Amino acid sequence: MLPAVWDYVIVGGGLAGSIISSRMHEYNSTLKILLIEAGQDTRSRTDILYTNATNLMGGELDWQYQSEPVAALNGRSITYNQGKGLGGGAAINACGYTRGPKVDYDEWAELVGDSRWSYESQLPFMKKVEDWFNTNSTAQHGNGGPLHVASVSSTGRAFPLRDAVAKGWDDLGIPELPNLDGNAGDNLGRGELTETRRNGLRELPPVIYPLDGVTILTETLVEKILLSRNCSQGELHATGVLLANGTTISAKNVISAAGAYRSPQLLMLSGIGDAAELAKHNISVRLDLPDVGKNLMDHMSLYQFWKLKNPENGYSIGSSNPIFAQPEFGTGYPIDWVTSTGVNKTGLAAAIAKDEGAVPDPASHPLLKDDRTFLENFVIYQAYSAANPAVPMNGSHVYTNIAALIQTSLGTVGLRSTNPSDAPVIDLNYLTTEVDRYVYREGLRQLTRLMLDSSFGKEYISGETPPDDFAPVSLEDTDEYLDSRVAHAGVTTWHPHGTCSMGKVVDSEFNVKSVKGLRVVDASVLPVAMSAHLMGPLYAMAEQAAAIITGNA
């Protein structure tokens, strides 16, 4: 028999929701926990386990958001895929695992005034998560945790261009990281790709974190959080949730784990948010909290295609090279290296001065700290594009991806209507600061040097295959030309965060400010730009959140 009042109702069964539900039950099996997920139960779906699961983007496991037109991207609206179902984005993503650098976590702790969010304090939770492929890395990594993390070489994949690409980065002065490990606190340099796969199969959060003992409602949409006030001036209390079908569920505590887009939407639909935004939709203001839906950060990407000089030698998937038919090459993506880089600080300081109207202090400005990672670079041994440009998957090309990891052009999330079925209004606001434009230009120039002017580029690459109506990139490209390329083809890496920022919307224990019994635990609370694929930081954050909430931290 279901309880009349739940101890905890958790809205959202994605990565964070699955982990905190599982761990809270493990810490205290008497807790009555209800996990509500808008999408389906993915735990028995085998199709999501394989490397081509990103093909599920655009299907029933995807919210399929559309951003508002982005002025800096020629007014294009960006398709924003977000996981819908148990596991959330971790059910349809590419399984790339990166933690990000120590400096990001330490800035997080400093910003919220709580040392528990520093790198050293989060490290035990990072290690608790991991079943790291290498048992000799115990200072920085865990073994025996629920999440298996494998490097490319540990799976037996040795791509034909591995050493040549490494030498190309060496030529540019990019260091090789100790133990090829970009997940040990300092990721500036070249390390091996690591993925959350066990024997080539995806590690799905609601499977590796068992949900036995947790009651689960799937394909169920929450309309709003129910709030009460003991008296006219008393503190707000969360008392449960109202489902979109009209059902009321009572709870002592509510946790929103609905993600960086749905959590701020849910708070606003419940009357918590910027009073001006709520007034647009005639929503009664229960708490004027202006930062709800603000501070949206994301990682913008650009893909480029590069023609190989001697494709008949079998360097890229699609060629006749029999190596790619070997089973180990189906255990992950055709990538060897994750190369994380900074930018020239003199140029960066000049860009900051343009944005802020004053010369920044290099000793104190957060963007000028040592070890800040601004760019992530991949060379991918596979290429296909149906059009603009048309690139056949016949082994004739490789492609590159560059992602800007620190966004200073902050976006917003707003309401489209009072209907929870309607997608929120997503304003990505890319490239509105000189810093962001400078970083992207620097990144493109660096990648062009790798592909055209390093030993790797000179021996293996004949040139870029650009989009229609564009010239191939060159070593002499102007700022204006590089900006036009980004405007034409810039896309998202699907890493939204910051929209219910810790320190502004929630405190350092995830409590929504001025509301009892209401927390937010997902990517929306990340208060700083994380130079990582968010899955890595979120695993550790959710582990610590469960410990904090149950008094086991």
Feature tags:
553 residues, alpha/beta, Glucose Oxidase, domain 3, eight-stranded mixed sheet, seven-stranded antiparallel sheet, 12 helices
Question: How would you sum up this structure, described in words?
Answer:
This protein has twelve helices and 26 strands. With 553 residues, it is of the alpha/beta class. The chain has a domain at 96-202 and 300-404 and 431-489: Glucose Oxidase, domain 3. A hairpin with a 2-residue loop joins strand 9 and strand 10 (201-202). Helix 9 crosses helix 11 (479-489). The mean pLDDT is 97.
What's the SSE blueprint?
Blueprint (H helix, E strand, L loop, with lengths): L4 E7 L3 H13 L5 E4 L28 E2 L12 E2 L21 H11 L6 H11 E3 L14 E5 L10 H10 L17 E4 L1 E2 L1 E2 L2 E2 L2 H4 L6 E3 L4 E8 L6 E8 L4 E9 L2 H11 L2 E2 L1 H6 L6 E2 L11 E9 L28 E5 L3 H12 L18 E6 L16 E8 L7 E3 L10 E3 L6 H20 L1 H6 E5 L13 H11 L1 E2 L22 E2 L1 E3 L14 H15 L4
Parallel strand pairs: 1-2, 1-14, 2-11, 5-6, 13-25, 14-26, 15-16
Antiparallel strand pairs: 3-4, 6-8, 7-18, 9-10, 12-13, 13-14, 17-20, 17-23, 17-24, 18-19, 19-20, 21-22
Helix pairs in contact: 1-12, 3-12, 8-9, 9-11
